[in-house]
User: What shape does this take?
Amino acid sequence: MPVPWLDVFFWALVATTSLYVAMAVFTSRQRFPRPAYMATGMLAGFGYVGPRVLIPFLPQPGLGLPDGVALIAGGLVLAAGVGIVARVLARLRAAGQGGEGPGPMLDDGLFGVVRHPMYLGDVLWPLGLGLMLDAAYAVALVPLWWLLRACLTFLEEERLIDKHGEAYRAYQARVPHRVLPLPGRRAG
Assistant: This one.
């Protein structure tokens, strides 16, 4: 009988559920007490990020990539993803985002390429880790991580429109890409 804690898809379910619970709280128009936000942030961290770190290490078929190719390509993608997340977090912190009041709307740098650059990094790093560890299921789950984040941008953007009004709508027109900079899509 298989044990769930060694099953890639069990952890994918945990990650998916954790992300949606966390985002339901963070994107809700209802205001929750600060401890609820803190607990939800921890759930997102441990329940969404943790399983995605674990998944490539679990038993699964390999991709068949040569070790050197997997290590170099995966390492570059992993570094790009982690670098993007770190850069965006530093930029948000420097801009004072997350506090009370509207705060400045960021629309340059990575925010001038995609409207949710942290989500781009959040899609890239598990891809890189899966490639590095030659983990077929981990790589196959990356479109799910992208789809989850892409869907959640709709909820998040409702709050951003509430917060920034027409300035955010103009930003949406200037930067048509939500998470991935797709070829052929240009600003309207």
In short: The chain has seven helices and no strands. The chain has one domain: 4-174. The CA atoms of residues 25 and 32 lie 8 Å apart.
